[in-house]
Amino acid sequence: MRVIGLMSGTSYDGIEAAAAEFDLSGDTLRMRPLGRLSHPYPERLRTRIAAALPPAATTTEAICVLDTGIGQTFAEAGVRAVAELCGGHADLVVSHGQTMHHWVEAGTVRGTLQLGQPAWIAEATGLPVVADLRSRDVAAGGQGAPLVALFDALLLRGLPGVPAALNLGGIANITVVAPDADPLAFDTGPANALLDTAVRHVSGGTEEYDRDGRGAAAGQVNPALLRRLLDEPYYRQPGPKSTGKELFHLPYLLAALADAPTPEPNDVLATLTRLTAVTVADACREHGVTRLIVSGGGAHNPTLLRMIGDELPDVHLSSSDEVGVASDAKEALAFALLGYLTVHGLPGALPSGTGARHASVLGSITPGRQPLRLPAPVDTAPDRLLIAASPVAD
């Protein structure tokens, strides 16, 4: 089956599309990546998303406008992916949508909201669409995140030592696959969320992120600010756990800076980069990680990777490219896999990764132009993922 995954993370800069062919034989799932592409959000839509994100107040009208605008942009990305990655033929689209709110109370997720009406994708591509993948896990008592845990567990299973997958998006999440133990996954804290917020703030909106980590590399860590940031109770909560920009936003950062003034902007960036490195390293040390496989936008930040390496001198760091999965495509491919499992009647969430009471088949299905015909249900869930060598298009 040829599946397209569409993903937009908490940085809301655009949509990553990745396509792959999946074939399940017994307990082995084979994946042949077909390529990836990036589809930017129009600037006006990005502005609307930013205006509606927590802690801002919003309206039902704004949410309706966003649901349509995001859905239409995801549809454009899907049409491009069918043509450019799949030679004009695909069987299924899987859409993560754009997370607008992740409702957490006292460590319990009460709800999660991803916008991007899948009907627009189905109408534009003519293909069935699996969407809203997080809500079912939340309904089963889970965090609804990180849902990449199953993909990570299948990919890392069998590697020596205690391997872990680290995704550095707006929020950093980790999946630890220790031998003779259920995989464990959780959000460690902010990766790019506070960094991007700081850059936008100090640049008056002219810059979006710390390109190549240059600002942080030019600054010095402020120990007082780092201590203040590390006082965040979230870091002491046990996993599974999840978080988002509902917690790590501009007022949060400004409150920390009021308590620990840091006049030099590059020192703020250096401290926030070290915060991510420390919180990731703490999670790795707690669970005995010996190898860390990194993906996501933060994997392009050499200063962040150097700081993580400084904190974990005995842990081997590498990119997910080294295990056959392009770093920038990993999340989109992970959601493509989850959608493939859904249409085959297989669960896509790991209870040990989200804290759910049981594993659930994820998402809702929007039919395409043709009558909806699902594959025959499969009884055996995959136990390992094999990656077939294939060039990844940019």
What does this structure look like?
The chain is α/β, with parallel strands linked by helices and 394 residues long. It contains 13 helices and 13 strands. The protein has helices at 43-52, 60-85, 118-125, 135-139, 149-156, 193-202, 214-218, 223-230, 250-259, 265-286, 302-311, 330-343, 351-354, and strands at residues 2-8, 14-25, 28-40, 92-105, 108-115, 129-131, 163-168, 171-176, 184-190, 291-295, 316-319, 364-366, 384-387. The strands form 2 sheets. Strands 1, 2, 3, 4, 5, 6, 12 and 13 form an 8-stranded mixed beta sheet that branches. Strands 9-8-7-10-11 form a 5-stranded mixed beta sheet. A hairpin with a 7-residue loop joins β8 and β9. α1 crosses α2, α6 packs antiparallel against α10 (265-286) and α8 packs across α10. The chain is globular.
What would you say about this model in short?
With 394 residues, the protein is an alpha/beta fold. It contains 13 helices and 13 strands.
Structural class given helices, strands, pairing?
alpha/beta
Order of helices and strands: EEEHHEEHEHHEEEHHHHHEHEHHEE
Radius of gyration: 20 Å
Helical fraction:
25-40%
Give the terminus-to-terminus CA distance.
22 Å
